[in-house]
Amino acid sequence: MAEETGYPEEGELVLCTVKGIMKAIIFVNLDEYNKTGVVTTAEIAPGRIRNIRDYVIPNKKIVCKVLRIDQAKGHIDLSFRRVSLKERIASMAAYKKERNAISLLNKIVQEKSKAEKIIEEIKSRYKHLSSFLELAKENSSLFKEFSISDKESEQLLEAVKERTKSRKIFVKAKIKIQDIHLIDKIKEVLKTDKSNVKITYITAPSYLISVEGNDYKEANKTLMETIEIIKQKVENAGGEFSSEIEKVS
Fold first, then answer.
1. Domain housing 191
2. pTM (2 decimals)?
3. Number of domains in the chain
4. Is the domain of 77 the same as that of 102?
5. Which end of the chain is more exposed for a tag (fewer CB within 10 A), N or C?
6. Burial class of residue 178 in the structure, from the number of CB atoms within 10 Å of its CB (0-12 exposed, 13-18 middle, 19+ buried)
7. pLDDT tens digits for 40-53?
């Protein structure tokens, strides 16, 4: 993705890449701003953290909320725990969508310097290339505002419509269930009657929930409902439950 200039706003959700872990501080790169931010362990998760690598590992993409900015010192404080599960899913889905949009335009506009210029111009006006392509799908005259030939416009429009028509949505989350007394009840705890929901064993105590659908909002709703049902079952049985977004595709 093209980088933003300046700094994010306090309270803004930002996609980050974990760069390093040093004692009680996690260093991350804010992908869209190409700036370094820090997350203290207190802002990773509430309560005592047994192993910080259960939440963050180097090179992993995470969604954080901007807490404080000191531009004079170039310092950005972030929080991971203050981002809801729903917000993480939405942010990762938006990231994936934007990455796919950039890949599509680069494929059709094969001259690299021209493609980079077009992306920069579109993002300066519409912020996200994916948002522009959604608008252009309904109003193809928007392509004429940029240096996109008629042939390229036709190819882009056809590709966008085809992706919209055939693309399947997958939302996934990793859950952890910890309590030895739940071992004999685990099948009942993970039982679901929804045909588009798949729950698979990873390694103790982790499981992966995967929801397939044609509409992101519906798939996300089903994922959230499934997580909440399992959480209630685990907590009612006296167990410990945690969840983390694994992948959006």
1. 169-248
2. 0.62
3. 3
4. no
5. C
6. middle
7. 999 998 888 888 88
